[in-house]
Design brief:
Layout lengths: L4 E3 H8 L3 H10 L6 E2 L6 E4 L3 H12 L4 H8 L7 H27 L6 E6 L2 E10 L5 H14 L21 E5 L7 E8 L8 E3 L2 E9 L5 H14 L8 E5 L12 E7 L7
């Protein structure tokens, strides 16, 4: 046998990878052995393959998906760009989470100003999206908004204002379940008039309503404050929680975004 060939165990130590991982990378076509014994099936590698093996290990330690690792090894120059964007988005999300945590540490759960309002039924075009837990709700909501606005229904503004606690015309309403689960469904509705086909009707009724001013990432402070207000007064609530997006984030600074948060009330008024 060529003396340059190394058995898989020795090569694994050289490459700082387990034998199991080397076998897996062989199955995926990421790192083929230089030789496979036809009788025993033993895998052998050349020392020169260590650089490639070490590169795979490094990329995997950086949470680069195996599919992208394969593109990098194939010489794709921009294969890591998507991974970089994902890491930047995760870093930004962590920073926003830290901002919420710092507010809670400094102020506790906010004392949210709440009012009880009567809402009329509302016709909307609805898009639903699955979220893999609370940490995925932001992505799922953004995906639903993109689907709504990408089609013909997003080509123009809603005709006329929508009446209610919201100041001015309403375009988008987010719907979120009260019950938190590992997987949940969120939805975003686009308010339309009766001339628009394919719409569903969001029921009206009595709602506890609070105004959130600030970034969407800190919306949970207002939602929890609103739910605490209902619990302290013995008000029975049901879902979904509604977020009515008053401001246009394309032209409004994050700290100035206005969102109305509404929770349907099941019980009669108890002033």
């Amino acid at each position: 046998m060529d003396e340059e060939l190394l058995p898989i165990g020795r090569f694994a130590r050289l490459a700082r990878l387990s034998v199991k991982r080397l076998r897996r990378y062989d199955e995926l076509g990421l790192l083929r052995p230089a030789h496979v014994d036809e009788v025993t099936g033993y895998r052998y590698y050349r020392a020169a393959q260590a650089r490639q093996a070490l590169s795979i290990g490094l990329l995997r330690s950086l949470d680069v998906p195996l599919a992208v690792v394969g593109e990098v090894l194939a010489g794709s120059g921009d294969a890591l760009e998507g991974v970089r964007r994902t890491l930047e988005e995760e870093l930004a999300r962590r920073r926003r989470t830290l901002g919420v945590l710092e507010r809670v540490m400094a102020e506790g759960l906010p004392e949210t100003a709440v009012r009880v309002v009567e809402e009329e039924p509302l016709r909307v075009l609805l898009v639903r999206e699955r979220a893999a837990g609370m940490e995925d709700v932001g992505r799922a909501t953004s995906a639903a908004v993109a689907k709504l606005l990408a089609g013909p229904v997003g080509a123009g503004p809603v005709r006329g204002p929508v009446r209610g606690p919201v100041r001015g015309p309403v375009r988008l309403i987010g719907l979120f379940p009260l019950d938190v689960a590992e997987a949940m469904e969120v939805a975003v509705g686009l308010a339309v008039d009766e001339s628009q086909g394919g719409a569903v009707v969001l029921p009206g009724g009595r709602f506890a309503c609070a105004t959130h001013v600030g970034a969407y990432e800190q919306m949970s402070l207002t939602v929890h404050g609103l739910l605490a207000w209902c619990a302290e007064r013995g008000r029975a609530v049901r879902g979904p929680v509604r977020e009515v997006y008053v401001s246009d984030p394309a032209v409004t600074a994050p700290g100035e975004l206005v969102t109305e948060v509404l929770v349907p009330l099941d019980d009669p008024a108890r002033e």
